[in-house]
Design brief:
The chain is of the alpha/beta class. The strands form three sheets. Strands 2-1-6-7-8 form a five-stranded parallel β-sheet, sandwiched between helices. The chain is globular. The C terminus is likely disordered.
């Protein structure tokens, strides 16, 4: 075995096997770091039978050399900075703040886009399992851990398929439990340990979250929709936890799909 995963879905299912002690519990939430962590977290949450939510973290890149991260920022504005990089590039406080403000705005935009108006999962006194597709430096995950801790969970678990061994050692001291399936050496980069490491899109993130959110019991409503002078009656199913009312078009589509009988 060469230590590679076929794709993120396989990695998520294998991760769930190591987390099976949390299966079926009503005090457990899987928090996936988008975008790449969401396909992993989706499979893990499905296998465990627990809710899935996203926890958005953005890397803070050095202006002009954005691939060089000097830290990360998470929901609520929590930051983790690599002071060595900040000092090495001679970054001023003003520049740091501008980058952080821009990325925080992107964190907030993505959270709204991914959740579609749903509230974030309640983490107080819950077991929060943070999932990503892998860890290199671990800066993003550290920011996530600090931000999650502010929401007062009973326990924080970090679970990833692959990571640099040194990053695991450091992060293990900051959480209640750390699970990493494989720590290959030399590590180099997360993507090297997947056969398929294609980019996860925003649309895929939304679809997986919607699929996970729809796994609970649905709320049903009898509806009647008039179209072209014909009334069609049917049953509209609204996923549990949805706070939004269906649009007329959605109601019409559902009514037509589950039509009982037309009434003229």
């Amino acid at each position: 075995m060469d230590g590679r995963f076929r794709d993120r879905a396989e990695a998520g299912r294998l991760l769930a096997e190591r987390l099976r002690g949390y299966a079926g519990r009503d005090d457990v939430v899987v928090l996936a770091l988008p975008r790449g962590g969401v396909p992993v977290g989706y499979e893990t949450a499905q296998a465990l039978g627990v809710p899935l939510d996203v926890f958005v973290v953005r890397k803070l890149g050095v202006p002009g050399h954005e691939e060089l991260a000097f830290g990360a920022i998470a929901s609520g504005g929590v930051r983790v900075l690599n002071e060595g990089v900040v000092d090495a590039v001679g970054m001023s406080d003003d520049v740091l703040e501008r980058v952080a403000e821009r990325e925080l705005a992107e964190v907030q935009r993505r959270e709204a886009a991914y959740r579609g108006g749903r509230d974030p999962a309640d983490l107080e006194e819950k077991v929060a399992i943070l999932v990503d597709d892998g860890l290199a430096t671990g800066a993003s995950m550290r920011a996530a851990v600090q931000a999650v801790r502010a929401r007062r969970p009973a326990r924080i678990v970090v679970a990833v398929p692959t990571a640099a061994a040194s990053t695991c050692d450091e992060l293990a001291r900051e959480v209640d439990e750390l699970i990493c399936l494989r720590t290959p050496e030399p590590f180099y980069a997360v993507g090297l340990w997947y056969d398929d490491f294609s980019q996860t899109t925003d649309q895929e993130v939304r679809e997986l979250l919607a699929r996970a959110g729809g796994s609970g019991p649905a709320r049903t409503e009898d509806v009647t929709v008039e179209a072209a002078g014909v009334e069609v009656g049917g049953t509209l199913a609204v996923p549990d936890g949805s706070s939004s009312s269906p649009t007329e078009a959605e109601a019409a589509a559902t009514a037509l799909a589950t039509a009982r009988s037309p009434r003229r």
